[in-house]
Amino acid sequence: MAMPSLAQLRRLKERGEPVATLTAYDASFAARMDEAGVDLLLVGDSLGMVVQGFETTVPVTLDAMVHHTAAVRRGSGQRPVIADLPFLTFGDPATALNAAGRLMQEGGAHGVKLEGGGPVVEIVAELTRQGVPVCAHLGLLPQTVFKLGGYRVQGRGEEAGEALLAEARALEEAGADLLVLEAVPAEVAGKVRRALTIPVIGIGAGPDCDGQVLVAYDALGLTPGGGPAFSRDFLAATGSIPAALAEYVRAVKAGDFPGPEHTLA
């Protein structure tokens, strides 16, 4: 059986098959996602909010990420697993390499995700040189929520959209294997997808991406207070968690999700 890797996702893009991604935080959910056919499991620092009960992702530690990544890997089967580099663990190449090393060696991750463009491009390049598969993340960056002043749509307007596209190209040139676009207008996301050869996975970025990702708790209607407007409760219509996970995969693959009601202008 082939070893899990992010290269599998590029092949999906090449043949025009949407990539279905969900966050995972433990072995049991990871096993159910594997059975449902989820293409990629993301151990997101969103665990700080939906598992640990924090208001933001900022308090999540590297130790916590290693712990949850290892748990997910024990249930993920042959699905590739990427893990978030948490807040302030990738400010310079040496710190980022140490954090990525722990997530891959102790946690068993197949790659890491880090937020931002600009200075982060240099970090991506160094991780790539050292053989670390990297998922980049642009648009809304949850780790900078205090700087942004809240969770706001990014990339609106021609200038902001062009700047985001330029950062996406720079990250791909630096060696990123995958890009997550969060909370950006659908038109901007489509331009980015068409400009890059690596898969572009959207969350609140409309249907014109190479795939979709949701926080699993949002997709199952478990988030206190309800999930974001761009999410859908797949459990409500299916009645069981395994059926909801399978329906999410089907809807993404068929292009039924996200619909117009889940798309930001």
TrEMBL record:
Its cofactor is Mg(2+). GO terms for cellular component: cytoplasm. 3-methyl-2-oxobutanoate binds at D45, S46, D84, K113. SUPFAM superfamilies: Phosphoenolpyruvate/pyruvate domain. Its EC number is 2.1.2.11. It is an enzyme of class 2 (transferase). It comes from the Bacteria. Pathway: Cofactor biosynthesis; (R)-pantothenate biosynthesis; (R)-pantoate from 3-methyl-2-oxobutanoate: step 1/2. It is found in: Cytoplasm. Mg(2+) binds at D45, D84, E115. It catalyses: (6R)-5,10-methylene-5,6,7,8-tetrahydrofolate + 3-methyl-2-oxobutanoate + H2O = 2-dehydropantoate + (6S)-5,6,7,8-tetrahydrofolate. One of its GO terms (molecular function) is 3-methyl-2-oxobutanoate hydroxymethyltransferase activity. Binds 1 Mg(2+) ion per subunit. GO terms for biological process: methylation; pantothenate biosynthetic process. The active site is at E182. Keywords: Cytoplasm, Magnesium, Metal-binding, Methyltransferase, Pantothenate biosynthesis, Transferase. Gene3D superfamilies: Phosphoenolpyruvate-binding domains. Catalyzes the reversible reaction in which hydroxymethyl group from 5,10-methylenetetrahydrofolate is transferred onto alpha-ketoisovalerate to form ketopantoate. Homodecamer; pentamer of dimers. Belongs to the PanB family. PANTHER family: 3-METHYL-2-OXOBUTANOATE HYDROXYMETHYLTRANSFERASE (PTHR20881:SF0). This is 3-methyl-2-oxobutanoate hydroxymethyltransferase. It comes from Thiohalospira halophila DSM 15071. The gene is panB.
